[in-house]
Structure formats: structure tokens, C-alpha cells
Amino acid sequence: MKNSLPEVHGFFQRDRSWHPPAFAPGYRSTVVRSPQRAPISFPNTLSEVTGPVFGHALLGELDNDLTINYAKPGESAIGPRIVVYGRVLDENGRPVPNSLVEFWQANAGGRYRHKKDTYLAPLDPNFGGCGRAVTDAEGRYWFRTVQPGAYPWPNGVNDWRPAHIHFSVFGPGFVQRLITQMYFEGDPMIWKCPIVRTIPDERAIERLIAKLDMEATQPFDSRLYKFDIVLRGSNSTLFENRKEGN
Amino acid sequence: MAQELNRLKESPSQTAGPYVHIGLTPNFLGIEGVFPVDLGREMVNDETIGERIDVVVRVFDGTGTVLKDVLVEIWQADAKGLYNSPNEPRGKADPNFTGWGRMASDMENGECVFRTIKPGQVPFNDGRMQAPHISLWIVARGINLGLQTRMYFADEDAANRVDPVLTRLEHQNRVPTLIAPREGNTYKFDIHLQGEKETVFFDI
Fold first, then answer.
1. Ranges for the Intradiol ring-cleavage dioxygenases domain (chain B) (predicted)?
2. What are the sequence ranges of the domains in chain A?
């Protein structure tokens, strides 16, 4: 035996008591879509620690401005103008650079531009609802949008989603793939939502609530909300003599 | 008290929901003009090395109904077994193969069709070779945390029999849930979320 670190550095195992369980009957769609047998674990191989990388060249100029990226020239989406900004970090607190962050949302009235959404609130002809960014060397991203509205959904007879933005995030390893949702500080609807409440730990829910940042807010333009996202960390970075990111 | 580790917790997952297409496959949905193409639709080009195959994935719920609102991503090695990733230490992968695919299921028949190539073999951590496989990540309404599984190839029986992952499964009668049969150049991989035929999912 030689005394050396393993060549494939696996990611820290997911804390499945922190994530929502697959079977969460308060959110009725999970009942027939949740695996019932225990998942199987094995050490990460190259198949798990590698993953696709997307460069900044991918991005168009308007990709991170949902107020205008679907709008007619000279027009913009209706609703409260906000900027969402933050960083993608790993569990060691290090920034994740070159992370593709994709986001989608309902319009200010709570209506999605989707053939399956039939809510009464009207579509906004100038709002598509999708955007994306790639994090910089410090893991930072930002985008401008309109604050989405709450909307009713078929679960119980009177269940409403709190205002939220969906996020899809890539890390360098395929098993870091994560989809989550961002909520807004102070929204009383958060704690009534069956999807939010699939998360067992209140502290975990709070990690998904973006904070209003009045200091950074742009006067007469947009209010800012800060939302950091944490991906799985690995021990590959623990022993490297690299500058601390945090 | 001992010192703090000061580690962060991973952001908790939330479902992709029924409107995942808006964000991840907007052109497929009909939201055009924001992004030129949907990412992950083209994995190969005319120069890609390897045997061209189609992988058709369907996902079934516990009632046996096919999901028409699922999104599947796949990740695989090139024909020589190299990943197109900065974390690949063994050499440079085929530059004409991305290795990554993303498809929303057809809203009528639930099929996700990936046009790709058959991957080469990749070593396990102890140096044994793994059978050729494709990694999958599955999200949808009603799935709270993206599901991870693998697809193996039915015509790689010899490699499958000694694969380090397949051989470590306690319930060997579940191995067939991970093996896609071949018809012509098409592999059909049916994933069952629940029931007798529940697919093996991984916590990796």
C-alpha cells in the first residue's frame, strides 16, 4: 500500500434528510412518482465526477435580462423590476466558476408561458420567462427580471404557490446537478406551500429564501435580492494550496 | 467545544415542476427567439467517432402511466471511454462529441430520444473496467430530488457480467432494470419509478 490520496475524489454524500423525501404525500404528485426501494450507493467514479462545462461564449447579450429578452423592441415585461444576484459555492465554501445557471418563472400575474398553464391571469406578451447565466471566477451570477406572482395549482382545493423562481445549476461533476426554487423574503405564502413543506427542516427552507438587499438596490431601477446556491463539495479541494474563496 | 468545520449544506432540492420546459427546453415548448437552440439536443456531429445509436428513454409512474412531463439528461464517455470534461485526467475526449444530452419527453408518447454514440469503457476506482454505460438524471413534477441511474447495453453481456456496479447489487434480480435491449441501432430504456419493475436508482 502506498500512502497517497485516491485519484478520483468523490463528492460528499448527499444528506437525504436535508433534501425533501421522494414520498411526500402533502405534495400529491409524489405519491406515484417516488421510488420505494432504497437507492444504491457506490464510490464516485469518473462517470460521476466529470460533467459538461459551458463557456461564457454560450451566452447572448440578453440571456440574463428577462424583462427584455422576449419583449418587442422598445418594450419590456410588466411587473416589479428586480435583480437577483448571488454566488454558486460548494460545501467547502469555495466558488464554483463557469457554472451554468438556468432560471424560469411565471410572470408578474402568476401565469406561465406554457401550454399546460390555464390560470386566469393573462400572459404578458413581452415576457417569456426564461434566462441563464454562467458564473464568473468568483462564482457570481446575476439577472434582471420581474417579480413573479403567486398562483393556484391543483393539489388541495385551495393550494397556492408562493412567488418563486426555478433554478437549474451545474457543477463540474454530473452528480452535482441540482434543481431548486428561490422564494422571496417576507412572503407569508412560503410556509403554507405543500411543495416547500416537502423539505423537512425549517433551516433548509430558509436557505431557499432570497434576502432583499436594499444597500445594493439600484435607485429608480430595480430592487436587489441575494440568492446563494450551494452544490455538493468534494475532498479534492481540501488539500490544495489554493486561495480561499470565502 | 471542538473547532467548527464551517462547511456549508447543499441547497435543498425542489421539484422541477410541470413547467420545466420554459427554462430548460424553451424552443421545444415554442418559446423561440430567446435562446438559439435548446442545450443538449445535439450530442454528435458528422465528425463524431463511434457507432451511431439512438437511446429512447421512457419513464413510468407507479400506475404504469408514462410520464409526459419528464426531463432527462444523460452523460456518457466517448467511443474510447473518455469524458469531454476538464475533470477527465486520462486524455482528451473526441472534440466532436459533447457527451451530454438533455431531452424533454414527447408530450404525446413520453419518449425522450437521444441521438448519440455507443460509449467506450471507463475504469472503476480499483482499476477494473466498468461495462459501457450512460448516466441519467431524471427530473419532473412530483420528483423532489433528481433521480440518478445508469443504462447498460444488452449486447455487452460479457462486460455487464463483471461490471463493478452491477455485480455489487444485493438483489441480482433487479439488474435487468438497468439493461436496455437493442433493436437495430436503437436501445429502449424504460424506467419504472415504482412497482415490481422499479428501476435501481443510485445515491452517488
1. 43-195
2. 52-233
Residues within 8 A of B (CB atoms), A 152-171 only: 166, 168
**Number of A:B CB contacts under 8 A?**
261
User: For residue B164, what is the nearest residue in chain A, using CA coordinates?
Assistant: A42
Distance in angstroms (rounded) separating the CA atoms of residues A196 and A185: 14
Ramachandran region, residue A199 (left: φ > 0; alpha: ψ -120 to 50; beta: rest): beta
- The answer to whether the Cβ–Cβ distance between B18 and A172 falls below 8 Å is no
Residues of A in contact with B72 (CB under 8 A): none
> Looking at this predicted complex, what is its ipTM?
0.97
* Strand A130-134 relative to strand A100-104, pairing: antiparallel
pLDDT in the model for residue A245 = 35
Contact between chains at B8 and A44 (C-beta distance less than 8 A): no
Domains of chain B and CATH, by start? 37-192 (2.60.130.10)
A52-233 is classed in which CATH architecture? Answer: Sandwich (2.60)
pTM: 0.96
